[in-house]
Each structure stands twice: as structure tokens, then as C-alpha cells.
Design brief:
By secondary structure, this protein is mostly beta strands. The protein has one domain: Calycin beta-barrel core domain (Lipocalin, Beta Barrel), CATH 2.40.128.20. Helix content is 9%, strand content 49%. It contains one helix and eleven strands; from the N terminus they run αβββββββββββ. It has a ten-stranded antiparallel beta barrel. A hairpin with a 2-residue loop joins β9 and β10. The chain starts with a helix and ends with a strand.
Length: 189
Amino acid sequence: MKTITYLLFSLFTIHALAQYDYEPSSKNPFGSPNPNGPEELNDWKLLIGQCTCKSVSRIDQNTWADTVMMTWTFKYIMNGMAVQDETLKKDGAHSGSIRQFNSDSSKWYVHYYSSSSAVTKLPSWEGSKKENGHIILYREQPAPNGNPGYYRLTFSNISEEGYDWVGEWVNEAETFAYPTWKIFCKKNE
């Protein structure tokens, strides 16, 4: 009886440990994509890791604020089935997102949170990686004058060295864009 109990305990332990194979660990601090997950997990492959970034946001139509230094970290979570990011900014305004891919819609759904306010419902964006290598996400948002449009987030110039990011309001036809926030990132060694 002891042998059967020990065998069952060992099998349970091995199974329990295997369910966390793709989580961040001391050996792999940013985790890894789960091979049973969607292929699109690789959309974020070059962003996984830690970057030192310069963030600048718009004060008004003619003025940009001073540059804020920040660290932006991307990692695989949920045993390699999703991606999480976290920003730590020198000005104390920290934030992050959880990214999950929905195979039915073929879109990423990105849920954003921030240390500046605790909200009852997280704002979310949806989008995908484009043929040009950019990752573009949208959230419906009217302009201050009420015109319909979107707040668009674009990751561009993605490489092993880093990436750029811009948040901007765009009209529905995307013929007009008004950037409000830009971030330029270089990978840490």
C-alpha cells in the first residue's frame, strides 16, 4: 500500500510541476511560449525581456512633456499561454497589461492597468500583428470634439535591439492621426 501511495504521490508531483514548465523561473526569468498555445504567442517574441525606454507624452496641442525614463518588461505568463508587461517609470506612474490571443477572432485582447488609478473595469484594446511586422491595437474612443475614432497603439521597429511604441487618436478611416504618447526602447543586455 505504501508503494502505491508513494507512486501516486510521485506521479501527481511530476504532473503538478509539468504544468508550470513555461512560467518565469530563475533559469528562464521571462518564461517561454507554451507549445500547446497559439502560434501568435511568437508575435511578442522580440519584445520578451527587459528594455530601458524613453517615454514622452503630450501636454497640449503644441507641447510635449519632458522625457521620462522607464523600464519595460515583457514575459510569458499563465504557463506560457499569455504575455504580461510591466512598466516602471521614474515619475512613479507605473502600468502594465495582460495580453491573450483569441483564436476564434484571430485577435489579441490587451487589458491595461495602472498605479495611478484602480478602476472597476480594465480598459482593453484589440488587434494583431500586421504583415509589416507592426503590432497594432485599437480601442474605440471619440475625439474631444465628439468625432468617432479610436485610440491606436502601435509597436514598430521591432528587433532584437528594441522597439518603438506610439499611442495616438485616429479617425475611423485612419486618415488622420494625433499622437499623444511615444516610447522608444532599447533591450538591456
